[in-house]
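Wed. Picked up where I left off yesterday with Morc S5 domain-containing protein. The coffee machine is broken again, so keeping this brief.
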Amino acid sequence: MPVAMAGGSSGGGRVLDCRSFWKAGSYEAPAAPTHGFQDALETGDFDRARVHPKFLHTNATSHKWAFGAIAELLDNAVDEISNGATFIRVDKTINSKDNSPMLLFQDDGGGMDPEGVRRCMSLGFSTKKSKTTIGQYGNGFKTSTMRLGADAIVFTCAIRGSNVTLSIGLLSYTFLRRTMKDDIVVPMLDFKIQDREIVPLVYGSQGDWDSSLKIILDWSPFSSKEELLQQFQDVGSHGTKVAVYNLWMNDDGLLELDFEDDDEDILLRDQGSASGGVTKGQKEIVQQHISHRLRFSLRAYTSILYLKKFDNFQIILRGKPVEQICITDELKFKKAVTYKPQVTHDSQVVSVRVDVGFAKEAPILGIFGMNVYHKNRLIMPFWKVFQEGSSRGRSVVGVLEANFIEPAHDKQDFERTPLFLRLEARLKQIIIDFWKEKCHLIGYQPTDPNLRSQYKATLKDSGGSASHVHHKNSSSRRTGGFSSNLLPETYDDVAAAGFPNNGSHLQSTGQAQQNNMDSEGLDEDLVEIGSSGIFDPNFMEKLSEENLALFSRREELRQRDTQLKQTIEDLERELEETKRKCGQLAAELKGIIMTEDTGPRPMLTKN
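Structure written out below (tokens, as returned):
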């Protein structure tokens, strides 16, 4: 027997009894009636493959992460930029039948005509064959909407030639479960603009159209045809609106998506615990870093979701545009490395640019990882090529666009092909070489013996006795005057840190490192960071305290800025109120003067 499914509130809302996504697929499907086979033969349905509703849920489990499902819907809007889209709006709205929250997506792209919306809501159909479009499997809409909630309704308006059409489609797991369907039924409604009026567009019979309308009104958040058509008012002449409702909950009975803690963001529950950082202050910095916030903050995740910044397109999250962040701009001591993968023997040469550098927070925090994009879309954020806790490549962050390999269906990973494994090995080598070449720029001893000698000489020349550095077995190490060069805002070359490179060994060493990066082999002769690889812990602690003080100061300035803006707004309101009162007083005074000029003058008496 299927899991019990209770009706919703008195407003007509209908929900599944089980609202946890990972448990919603655990039910026994009803057995097909004995006369079903004969009916199929008579109606001609026998030639059509049936897809059971359980497949909707099974298919959606490809998204382990709810934000990955949201990204799929954002991709659809980004693909519409070529059709004139200028925004995608993501917001919370309310289901009027039961007052439950819904997740809304709306764009102003080209929209879908009746044929297009049917392709969208069919399984495994895609017309996106462009080398630049992100979507390619024809499965994203179904998997993403069903991962976020049990039901979704689509409103889309399109102009094709002189024809303007409006279409509505309902993909409802609740409806299919409650009515015990053994096949996926997607009711659709179509309209057209004729003589400036919206009239039904019937492709089958009127009875089928009326039946679809009844199902949509019974199982959607809307109670009448007029309410349905009202949803097109803010869509305009072209665009698409998707409302996902009966959103999934966690095991505690709370919505998986948190709309309450931040009015300008959508958060994931139970994903915000910080890892990394020794002290409380360091953990606070980790919590503010994009590599941590993207796990639970949709605003943080979407800020780095696309590699290139849009010229005329915005992601508007809960009424506020998302500010795009270029990860490469957040690095210091940056370097570009060219990687040429061997795709196939007969294919043309592919050249991939890998930008690599140290995180701005280095060396205080060990934030590291490679950010791998595919066709402008982030697939693997802060991918830890080396295992967590490894000293190799500490604080090294990289960015690349790998269009030569194919992502997995959920676009959160790549297929583990030999090509991908070679990329992984190459990135390891790039990180190792970069670390060996530049680790001294963030306070670590150089790994190259010749560079180490020159490094110590430079410290001695720049800092005198205060910059004295002891040998490996010494119990204490000092850095003195060089500490001011450890955390610059941006540095792109070695010379910025005070090291000579005009014909010196440092320049030749850098050239040797670059040549070494062009090889495919892995150098396993690594330098582990331990007591012999890092400076005096007291110095690092002092540097950490200074960094925390700057972080606190920044927060204070932000709060002060907010207060000043509020004060300005208050003063402007007071000024307007004062002007209004002055105007009133001037009018009253003018009236008094006119009365005195026209009226009788009072007699003055002597006392």
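Quick read: The CA atoms of residues 73 and 121 lie 13 Å apart.
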